[in-house]
Amino acid sequence: MATADLEWRITPGLTPYPGALAEMEARAAAIRDGGARELVWLLEHPPLYTAGTSADPAELFNPEGFPVFDAGRGGRYTYHGPGQRVGYLMLDLDRRGRDVRNFVHALEGWLIGALAGLGVEAFRAPGRIGIWVAHKGTEAKIGAIGVRVRRWVTLHGFSINVAPELSHFSGIVPCGIAEFPVTSLDEMGVSNGQKRFDLALKQGLDHFLFSLGGRI
């Protein structure tokens, strides 16, 4: 199996961002040095904003004064908070295929497939990064993707809005896209979304890893 040498971890409660970032970076370094297994880590954070390497200060309003962290990933400002499923992926692309574009494409496909398992028809939108759905007569963003690759090990990953406080997104221009709203599984009428989404992700994990190519 593609997952035989990979750790799948779900951390309950709210995980402080600085500690998660430090652990992620340490784990990625250990993977590169051959001292640790790959990791898919699912968690939630307390309310906060993260700034990617392309973040524009004009896109941060933050009326509630949430902490803002430099994430070191690509992209712009993103919100994380309770009710949002965050997934951090520490995968060895030296083993699974040195193709960052394919990695992002496969990650999008994995998330879209998991949402389909919940009856949600999600899709890619040309020119707009992230995971999108049709909702209330327009297109709305339900998931964000922001990754970094260091020494061919991936860091960061994705977030899917299960049942967060959507008003918190008004403190930023999410991922630099102001023309479209954000939504959540809860707003779309999906019940027990987090447990069901986690299960759907795990069921699709082998297919995601195979789609990366390389040496399984």
Overview of the structural elements:
- This protein is α+β, with helices and mostly antiparallel strands and 216 residues long.
- The chain has one domain: BirA Bifunctional Protein, domain 2.
- Helices cover 26% and strands 31% of the residues.
- The protein contains 5 helices and 10 strands, in the order βαβββββααββββαα.
- Strands 1-2-6-10-9-8-7 form a 7-stranded mixed beta sheet, with helices on both faces. Strands 4-3-5 form a 3-stranded mixed beta sheet, with no helix packed on it.
- Helix 1 links the parallel strand 1 and strand 2.
- Helix 3 packs across helix 4 and helix 3 runs antiparallel to helix 5.
- It is globular, with a radius of gyration of 16 Å.
- The model has no long low-confidence stretch (mean pLDDT 94).
CATH class equals Alpha Beta
* Largest beta-sheet details: 7 strands, mixed
Q: What is the alpha-carbon Rg in Å?
A: 16 Å
CATH topology: BirA Bifunctional Protein, domain 2
How many strands appear in the DSSP assignment? Answer: 10
Structural class: alpha+beta
Low confidence ranges: none
Based on the structure, what is the oligomeric state of the protein chains?
single chain
Mean of the pLDDT scores?
94
Shape: globular
Helix content: 25-40%
Q: What is the H/E order?
A: EHEEEEEHHEEEEHH
How many discrete domains?
1
The CATH homologous superfamily is termed Bira Bifunctional Protein, Domain 2
Measured distance between first and last alpha carbons? 8 Å
